[in-house]
Amino acid sequence: MSQRLAEVARKVGVSEATVSRVLNEKPGVSDATRQAVLTALDVLGYERPTKLRGERARLVGLFLPELQNPIFPAFGEIVAAGLVQSGYTPVLCTQTAGGISESDYVELLLQQQVSGVVFVGGQYTQENAPHEHYQRLADLNLPTVFVNAPISGLDFATVSTDDAVATEQAWNHLRQLGHERIGLVLGPEDHVPSQRKLAAARRAAEADGLELEVAHSHYSLEAGQAATARLLAKGVTAIICMSDPIALGAIRAVRRAGLAVPGDVSVVGFDDSALMNATDPPLTTVRQPIEPMGRMIIELLVSQIKGTAAATDEYLFEPELVVRGSTTRKNT
Asked: What's the fold here for domain 58-161+289-317?
């Protein structure tokens, strides 16, 4: 019993005495702390006391499209912590090659009678991908929050980084450095955030009277390298990338071409994910404000679960350009 008290107390960040008060239904414990203790019992695999077994853990599905891009685990950590603090147990659903499909995950979660779902990425970000399982969530009126892309025709609460502002920040930075041949490495053509970035870049290029070079890519470093090689053949001197891993691939492509970053080609990433200040050179990138976005995600989800709001808006958060060593003034 003492081992269980100690482990649950460490998990929640409270004293063993507080855990004991919860298990014995004693007063003097807030509802949030009480629910966090009960959730910790479930997560750690301990059986609840008989008198508390009627209160099942409140589960929330947390979808991450992958774990290799560090921005997704970063989002996941923030959202999961917020869920636990709000008394919910996150159930991680992540995609792997040949693994469980997103629609199958949804069915499994529905069987578990989850309280809600958060999608940090997935098929909803691509227009041509299957969306039937999202329609099922809408038909069931299950509390749901999307991150960084809405679905046309389905009214779900969405929390996004403003892709247009992100592109403008990167573009203006490169223009101030004297670059005129600027290329974009984006995701697939049906990828909604990429479409938004492309539209903003086209507006900026038109306003400046410049030609825009575009290459589409998958989301890996290797794909970014291949896409960048195509842009270098067109004579670009600066590249704006859809993600930080793609930007690292761009840097590799520049070096493989016998050129230098930033001396010959400047590179800008997107996300400001972990360790981008420790790359060679440190990566100039546009930072997603994931902490305030995470708080909004939790607020929107919990309000839906409690029935106090049925938010279907898209909330746009302004990013921040972080200038480091991968960009410099164009050689003349």
From this structure: Rossmann fold (3.40.50)
Q: Is the pTM of this model over 0.90?
A: no
Q: How many CA atoms lie within 13 A of 153 on its CB side?
A: 7
Q: Please name the CATH architecture into which domain 163-288 falls.
A: 3-Layer(aba) Sandwich (3.40)
Q: Which two tokens stand for residue 258?
A: 């016998």
CATH architecture of 2-52: Orthogonal Bundle (1.10)
Q: What are 298's two structure tokens?
A: 């939790």
- CA angle (95 as vertex; 113, 123 as ends), nearest 5: 80
Picking from 50, 77, 49, the residue whose alpha carbon sits closest to that of residue 64 is: 77
Whether 58-161+289-317 shares its CATH topology with 163-288 is answered yes
pLDDT digit string (tens) for the chain, length 332 residues: 567 778 888 888 888 888 888 888 788 888 778 878 877 776 666 766 656 544 444 899 999 998 889 999 999 999 999 999 998 999 999 977 677 889 999 999 988 889 999 999 999 999 999 999 999 999 988 999 999 999 888 889 999 999 999 999 999 999 999 999 999 999 999 999 999 999 999 999 999 999 999 999 998 899 999 999 999 999 999 999 999 999 999 999 999 999 999 999 999 999 999 999 999 999 999 999 999 999 999 999 999 988 886 667 899 999 999 999 999 998 86
Distance between CA atoms of 29 and 38, rounded to whole angstroms?
12
Domain locations in the chain?
A: 2-52, 58-161+289-317, 163-288
**Nearest CA to 314 among 165, 157, 209?**
157
**How far apart (Å, rounded) are the C-alpha atoms in residues 200 and 72?**
24
Secondary structure (3-state) at 177: coil
